[in-house]
Amino acid sequence: MTGSGAFGAGLIGALTGLGGGIVIVPLLTLACGVDIRYAVGASLISVIATSSGAAAAYVREGFSNIRIGMLLETATTAGAIAGAGLAALVSPGAIATVFGLVLLYSAYLTLRPHDVDATGTRADPLASWLQLAATYPTPEGPRPYAARRVVAGYGLMFVAGILSGLLGIGSGAVKVLAMDRVMELPFKVSTTTSNFMIGVTAAASAGVYLHRGYIDPGLALPVMLGVLAGALAGARVLATAHPRYLRLVFVAVIVVLSVEMLFRGITGRL
Amino acid sequence: MSEQHERLEEAIGTLLRVGVVSAAAVATVGGLVFLARHGSDQASYGVFRGEPQDLRTIGGVLRDVLAFRGRGLIQLGLLLLIATPIARVALTLIAFSRLGDRRYVAISAVVLVLLLVSLLGLPS
């Protein structure tokens, strides 16, 4: 039951590019009546599994930027530990409310069309000092790019880490926002580097959750296996399906979930 | 840089695959052991109680594994999974130090320390 639900979550996560966590936590809390702290713990485990599995494939394609990833991971891991600490201090209702808002925002980001890359090769001085410039493969050969507004991107990454640690999600949407919009990196570089970073971010908060006894083996195992299988199946389906049509359907699902999470969070019925 | 970079990416890819597959395999064996012994028990996650002490620390999990307890084996698989990205950061740190890139050795070290403190707990 939990396993098949997690399979669906992994499938939806892979098809929408949102990752499994954003679906698994509402599914466990709303449909299965699991306490949100157990749900977040199990979700973090599934996030590490899918991110590591996907990154193993992406890293060899040459899109992800290891320097940018490592630099920004100092922000996301610190944020994740802070977020996991925060999870112990606030009520489950407050966590559900924040979760609902993040879900709504993710739905919006998924629907918004992606503009043409505004990538330039003009780096800011800090980005040059940190050697963040690189090239990425295009059909016309390697294309150079540079990073801008490193400090602002770094700050947003800290926020992404907090959300990840508090809600048990990968916060891929916020990470891509920081790299694609703020630092003006190419979209493909942003998404693959984000995926690369998600596992490290989730591992930072998973340790804290484990010590606190929020990670239950009986729940985390079916969730992990289900999400992994779903993500693998999703990658297959994605090659043949029409992502645009699928997205609309899934965004509708996410909006319903977020309204339900907000309602339960605010009324404290969890 | 580029050839070394490719080798690093190759090594990271292999590490991640091995980590995920072995974690899933160990946890699945644990799940089977657990199901064989407690298959008919009714789980309840609606009420939050927190896990028993032995499932919260690495030492406790290892003791459970030696006793061949299903839940301990699952938890070991989960620990392997959490350790996979940590090993990735360690591998990247080594690669940066071979490149003589001190700046990124320091940056990788910060990430590694944060991850280890989180996993092992602060010494108290």
Overview of this structure, please?
The complex is a heterodimer of chains A (270) and B (124). Chain A has 270 residues and is an all-alpha fold. Chain A has one domain. Helices cover 74% and strands 2% of the residues of chain A. Chain A has helices at 2-16, 21-31, 36-58, 66-89, 92-111, 125-129, 150-167, 172-182, 187-211, 217-240, 243-267; strands spanning 134-136, 143-145. In chain A, strands 1-2 form a two-stranded antiparallel ribbon. In chain A, helix 7 runs antiparallel to helix 8 (172-182). Chain A is globular, with a radius of gyration of 18 Å. The relative contact order of chain A is 0.24. Chain B has 124 residues and is an all-alpha fold. Chain B has one domain (2-120). In chain B, helix 1 (2-38) runs antiparallel to helix 3 (70-98) and helix 2 (58-66) packs across helix 3. Chain B is elongated and about 55 Å long. The mean pLDDT of chain B is 84. Chains A and B meet through helix 3, helix 4, helix 9 and helix 10 of A and helix 1, helix 3 and helix 4 of B.
What's the short story on this structure?
The complex is a heterodimer of chains A (270) and B (124). With 270 residues, chain A is mainly α.
